[in-house]
Amino acid sequence: MTEVEQKPLQGKRIVVTRSRSQASELCRQIEALGGVPFEFPVIRTDFPSDLQPLDRAIAQLADYDWIILTSVTGVEMFFARIEQLIGTLPAGLRAKFAAVGSKTQAALERQGVTVAVTAEEYVAEGLLRSLGDQVAPGQQVLLPRSNIARKLLPDALRERGCLVTDVDAYRTLPVVGEASELIARLAAREIDAVTFTSSSTVNNFVAALSGSDVKTLLGDVVLAAIGPVTKETAQGHGLQIELMADTYTIQGLVETLVQHFTTKR
């Protein structure tokens, strides 16, 4: 293959820290661009250990004015539990749906839901701006989210006078896997980049490498974060994030990697 024909990530070995069930999209894009993904999942998702709060919210769906989903996983777990309990969304719901990001919107639309508001930015702050004055004091808002989601969104909605039910639709759990192969590859300078798609992936990645000199192992590795919250978490661990996606999506993360390695080449 000539240099002209080379794909933009040709031969680049890139660590994917997403859960194994979520990693396929990122791995496919890396491979399509000539890269070599190294899967090192550090998180997994499951239903909450206590399902009663989620089940109560589902039983009271008719009471809500807004149902806000902040991630694809949240959509999948929320609707999976709805299917287990009542089959489908009840007919005639008055609730409007809002989503953080186009991927979450698309996941809702696959469930047959019309999305009234989608955040222009892929963070909670973006959704607040997109909602504007469409949410009113006294309205009931359901937030089915991760057990470790930030409190900014529900707190801000309560400040607007909304009655917020912030319920765990799923929990994000650490994966304790064998890190010896990754450590060996890092030590041998066989890894070009590590991708972080959430604060959880950062925290658990660092924990997985505990006992090793993480800063030395990552000294020549490009660290890429999907957005500012993830970047801030990494910096809190003393990691230097070289790349951050302009658009806080998997596609945006890949585009940032492509731009970096193309320029570097």
Summarize the structure in words.
Its EC number is 4.2.1.75. It comes from Tumebacillus lipolyticus. Keywords: Lyase, Porphyrin biosynthesis. This is Uroporphyrinogen-III synthase. Catalyzes cyclization of the linear tetrapyrrole, hydroxymethylbilane, to the macrocyclic uroporphyrinogen III. By secondary structure, the chain is α/β, with parallel strands linked by helices. The protein folds into two domains: 13-42 and 175-264, Rossmann fold (3-Layer(aba) Sandwich); 46-171, Rossmann fold (3-Layer(aba) Sandwich). 39% of the residues lie in helices and 20% in strands. The chain is built from eleven helices and eleven strands. Strands 3-8-7-4-5-6 form a six-stranded mixed sheet. Strand 5 (96-99), helix 4 and strand 6 form a beta-alpha-beta unit. Helix 3 packs parallel to helix 4 (102-110), helix 5 (124-131) packs parallel to helix 6 and helix 8 runs parallel beside helix 10.
Q: How do the strands and helices of this protein lay out in sequence?
A:
Elements: E1 13-16, H1 23-32, E2 36-39, E3 43-46, H2 52-59, E4 66-69, H3 72-85, E5 96-99, H4 102-110, E6 115-118, H5 124-131, E7 140-146, H6 152-159, E8 163-174, H7 180-187, E9 193-196, H8 199-208, H9 214-217, E10 222-225, H10 228-236, E11 243-244, H11 250-264
Parallel strand pairs: 1-2, 1-9, 4-5, 4-7, 5-6, 7-8, 9-10, 10-11
Antiparallel strand pairs: 3-8
Helix pairs in contact: 3-4, 5-6, 8-10
Separation of termini?
15 Å
Let me know the average pLDDT.
92
Rg, rounded, reads 20 Å
Q: What is the beta-strand fraction?
A: 15-25%
Q: What is the helix fraction of residues, given as a range? A: 25-40%
CATH architecture of the largest domain: 3-Layer(aba) Sandwich
Widest beta sheet: strand line-up: 3-8-7-4-5-6
Number of continuous helical runs: 11
Judging from the principal axes of the Cα atoms, what is the shape?
elongated
CATH domain class name of the largest domain: Alpha Beta
Number of E-state strands: 11
Pfam family, one: HEM4
EC number: 4.2.1.75
Family: Belongs to the uroporphyrinogen-III synthase family.
InterPro entries: 4pyrrol_syn_uPrphyn_synt_sf, 4pyrrol_synth_uPrphyn_synth, UROS/Hem4
